[in-house]
Amino acid sequence: MEDTNNRQQPNQQQQSQQQQSQQQQSQQQQSQQQQSQQQAIFSENTNKTLALKGFIAITIFMVLLSVLFCIIVGATENRGELWLLIINLAFSSYVAITLCYWYKQGELESDKAWFLIFVASVLILQTITTDIYVFNPYEEQNPTQPPIITHALTTKKNHTTIKPLSVNIFF
Fold first, then answer.
1. What secondary structure letter does DSSP report for 160?
2. List of residues 6+ apart from 103 with CB closer than 8 A
3. What is the C-alpha separation between 130 and 136, in angstroms, rounded?
4. Residue-wise pLDDT tens digits, 45-74
5. For 46-56, b where at least 16 C-beta lie within 10 A, e where not — what string?
6. Which residues contact 83 (CB under 8 A, 6 or more apart)?
7. Most confident of 17-26, 37-46, 55-64, 105-114
8. What is the C-alpha to C-alpha distance for residues 154 and 64, in angstroms, rounded to an integer?
């Protein structure tokens, strides 16, 4: 009996050691994942990160201004087409926000920050064109008025009629 008790004790010790080693491995894997997630932002140059955050902040500010302009002008001048611009800005902003989230989580590598800047630049250009469209609406021309045609030369000329050329073909 003592023999079986002695055999069970080393087996129990081996099992507990295996469990401890598995726990240590899982903790190491978790810490490595956390470090890789934090590496997207925290291992970079702080000036680069600050410039990227500033550029994104400017983009967000411009999008909010454009949406505000569309709502105010659309409500006061009864221009329903401005709601389409708001929807377009919302879809484009969703793409930019998704990229920012991926960048922060580490799914978008830190050397791919240029893509985030590119998408934000396109969004800034979109807000500028939205503002231009909001404040310079298309004015319809009145189709009942005939166009004004002016001639540069008002002198009278003798016009001769051009006669068609007749060609005789002999076979």
1. -
2. 40, 41, 110, 112, 113, 116
3. 10
4. 678 888 888 999 999 999 999 999 999 998
5. eeebeebeebb
6. 70, 74
7. 55-64
8. 57
Question: According to DSSP H, which parts of the chain are helical?
Answer: 2-42, 46-77, 82-105, 113-135
Whether 64 contacts 96, CB under 8 Å: no
Distance CA 53, CA 40 (A): 13
- Nearest Cα residue to 66 out of 6, 107, 124, 112: 124
Token pair recorded at residue 120: 């934000």
Which of 122, 94, 106, 110 lies closest to 35, judged by CA?
A: 106
Q: How many residues does the chain have?
A: 171
- Where b means 16+ CB within 10 Å and e means fewer, 108-145 reads bebeebeebbebbeebbebbeebbebbeeeeeeeeeee
Q: What is the largest CA-CA distance in the chain?
A: 137
pLDDT at 161: 66
Q: How many CB atoms lie under 10 A from the CB of residue 99?
A: 21
